[in-house]
Specification:
446 residues; alpha/beta; 14 strands
Length: 446
């Protein structure tokens, strides 16, 4: 069970949105409303206002706080949700005034992530982010407790309950980090094992249609819905591209404005799929009037996870919802593909997208900075003894085996499709007894 759980949904919520000129604190109300809907909240009232700067004590002014309290009492609300990041002191002060729980934008996003996490790794990452957020807010629950009493049978370690809880949380976070480090190493081993195929990672603002596009291109059944953060755990599938061989397509979590730093840090191992990819497909909602700002937000997070220099193609999705927009490929001044216009819902333009991916990967490989590191893809036949079962399993995990037969001399005859530089390394692998080194096209079936 996770350390911090919220009710699944149905809570009556008062939403608070203040317009503040500062770009660092400005938020979008429609997006906030979608976040509340995604979390399962039930908005019963909205309080809006304008401030030149946040109030240090309550974020909102005293008059606005009184209005929030009145709405809570009128609608018997269970929670007040702020479309802003609140300090621990501001949350405590507000809760004392409105007499119900107060949650800021970061806490709301954490709650959604807690609901969406399904894999072991995802749950660990969410719990780590939750604990980091909670550790700064513990004081509100323990201000009434004094230092533990002494006396016979009552002597404690000399800690307040607050200090004890902080220590327990620190220990738990240390355990989670150790587990995540182990998962990260396992992920890196799997990643190295599939180096025979280039990795193409889908990135983009949340609800841009990444999972729908992923399902269309791979035939997978990743959960896709018209809500924010429908996908949390990364999914990888192999996709065959004409004249280019297979690639690994990765669907990742969507980004959002002011994505909490705790989430970025906790999900760094998951987001590594984008950092180490050979190519990024930056999926953009073509009908979004604020798409330029969304693009900047995504690129900002990519820079934060050291993926800002990874080559990318912009994929303008949802053209079926626009008038007079047919699938097409746009190129920059150098003739390089810069964007592709598609509809993941209808499938329009996906053939163009596959062609664009293949062309861009070929360019990157030719220039020496692609997944193939400048080498070309070849087909070879090799013979493995039964004692090399571990190496055979590794080849299958890399998705490089295209055919297999039993050898008359004992062992396996494997037909593999692989990069030249990988073949050179494989030729010297322990347990790999290569008796034939022939192009697959020149070899007969064993």
């Amino acid at each position: 069970m996770q350390f911090l759980e919220r009710p699944r949904g149905g809570e009556r919520a008062v939403l608070v949105h203040l317009e503040i000129p500062s770009a660092e604190t400005r938020e979008d109300f429609e997006e906030f409303h979608e976040l509340v809907r995604s979390a399962g909240g039930y908005p019963v009232a909205v309080v809006k206002g304008t401030r030149r700067a946040p109030d240090p004590a309550y974020f909102a002014g005293s008059g606005k706080v009184e209005e929030i309290r009145a709405q809570v009492e009128q609608h018997q609300a269970e929670i007040v949700l702020f479309n802003h990041s609140l300090s621990p002191a501001q949350e405590r002060n507000l809760e004392a005034q409105v007499k119900c729980r107060v949650l800021d934008r970061t806490g709301l996003i954490l709650d959604i992530f807690a609901q969406r996490a399904t894999t072991f790794e995802g749950k660990l990452q969410v719990e780590l982010a939750q604990l980091g957020h909670l550790s700064t807010r513990l004081v509100r629950g323990w201000t009434h407790l004094e230092r533990q009493k002494g006396g016979i049978g009552l002597r404690g370690p000399g800690e307040t309950q607050l200090e004890t809880d902080r220590r327990l949380i620190k220990n738990r976070m240390h355990q989670l980090n150790k587990r995540l480090e182990k998962v990260r190493k396992q992920r890196n081993e799997r990643r190295r094992a599939r180096t025979g195929s280039a990795t193409v990672s889908l990135v983009g603002y949340t609800n841009a249609g990444k999972s729908t596009l992923f399902n269309r291109m791979t035939g997978a059944e990743v959960f896709a819905a018209d809500q924010l953060f429908a996908t949390l755990d990364p999914t990888l599938r192999r996709v065959e591209l004409r004249d280019s061989g297979p690639v690994i397509l990765a669907d990742t979590v969507g980004f959002i404005r002011h994505l909490p730093h705790g989430l970025v840090a906790a999900f760094r191992s998951t987001l590594e799929e984008s950092r180490v990819a050979g190519l990024l497909l930056h999926v953009i909602d073509a009908r979004d009037h604020e798409r330029r700002e969304r693009i900047d937000q995504v690129n900002g997070v990519l820079r934060e996870i050291d993926a800002g220099e990874v080559p990318q193609i912009e994929v303008y999705n949802k053209i079926d919802l626009l008038e007079d927009h047919a699938p097409r490929i746009d190129r920059d001044a150098d003739g390089r593909i810069s964007r592709v216009w598609v509809s993941a819902a209808s499938g329009a333009g996906l053939d163009l997208l596959r062609e664009a991916i293949a062309e861009r990967l070929h360019e990157l490989a030719k220039n020496g900075n692609g997944a193939a590191s400048g080498s070309s893809r070849i087909r070879r036949r090799l013979r493995l003894p039964f004692s090399a079962a571990k190496l055979r399993a590794q080849l299958y995990s890399r998705d490089v085996v295209v055919g297999e037969n039993l050898s008359e001399a004992g062992g396996w005859m494997l037909d593999v499709e692989i990069w030249e530089d990988e073949w050179a390394a494989l030729s010297h692998a322990d347990g790999c007894a290569i008796e034939e080194d022939l192009p697959l096209s020149a070899a007969s079936n064993a």
